Amino acid sequence: MHLDELLQIIGEFGTFQKRQYFLVCLVGLYTALPILCSVFLAATPKHNCKIPAEYVSSAERVYGNLSHEELLNLTIPWEEKDGELTRSSCKLKSWDRNASIVDIGNNTASVKCPQGLDYSQEIYTSTVMSEFDLSCGNEWLVSTSQSVFFVGKLVGDALSGIISDRFGRRPTFLVAIILSASVGILTALSPNMIVYIVSQGLQGSLSGCIFLTTFTLGVEFVGPSKRNFAGFGVMYFFSIGYFYIVLFAYFIRNWRHLALVLYVPAYLFGLYYFILPESFRWLLSRRRTEEAEKLIRSVSMTNINSEPDDETIKSVIEDKEETSVSSRTYTPIDMVRTWKRAALTANVCFNW
């Protein structure tokens, strides 16, 4: 008897699987976090050149007290951007010490900000961009951090299957989630952009391990007729994760505080060590028969309040086809080993 046939008897998506599936879906919420959070951590607030004291005193001698808006109109040149006229974010009108404020106001010549930038706190009190002053020529560092994240994710996605096949889905997930929370703290405490970029690369590789491992766990617990539902369900929770990140970002406008609030709770997933079992399919493939038998009995008792007879369980455990399918460790090369599999891989890549 195959394991799928046994699951049809003891429940393809019974109480036991629903409980484990709910735990997996909670992880799906978290896995959306590393991908989207940089949108808020590294957001670009409105900014303009800091106005030197000489400009301010010269303007006030002529015009008296000026509002901040009036001072910006006198000292910041206007530029055309995307067909609209806006104040320059990175230039200041040049100033001749012997000139009057009228000349300052009319002068079209401009210079780069002599005293740095002044970032608006209207939306964000602090971001990676404002704290490390990455506007006006250094934006490439933020783009680099995002690229490094996805390079790390590519590596993590490619290696996660190999690692989880070798060591198990459960330990791979537990180690990756604890490391992810720790790297998140490193992100929040980054003293410079080098540390921030490195943390993003590490986070990308870990996020791949977490998502794919938990996705596999969620699917392997259920029977064949419920497998599509299980797969789509995890993805739905992944999408819902975008919403709660936005909710936290709305109330927490400091990027370091936001990173801590988003990542530190992930340590709670360490409790899964006590409540999330290993995949019985993986246990069977690695011939850990005693653990697989105990888990099958637990599923049966939870779902139908009875255990299958010893002969039935023995037939599943000794099923050579069941244990040989996943006994070897697969690599990304196997995704293109046959024409049919290569076509499926190409289709998935196209959809992504």
Automatic annotation (TrEMBL):
Subcellular location: Membrane
Pfam families: Sugar_tr (PF00083)
Entry keywords, A to Z: Membrane, Transmembrane, Transmembrane helix
GO cellular component, one term: membrane
Major facilitator superfamily (MFS) profile domain span: 98-352
PROSITE patterns: MFS (PS50850), SUGAR_TRANSPORT_1 (PS00216)
Major location category of this protein: membrane
GO molecular function: transmembrane transporter activity
Topology term for the membrane: Multi-pass membrane protein
Transmembrane segments: 20-43, 173-198, 204-222, 229-252, 258-276
Entry-linked PANTHER family: SOLUTE CARRIER FAMILY 22 MEMBER (PTHR24064)
Name of protein: Organic cation transporter protein
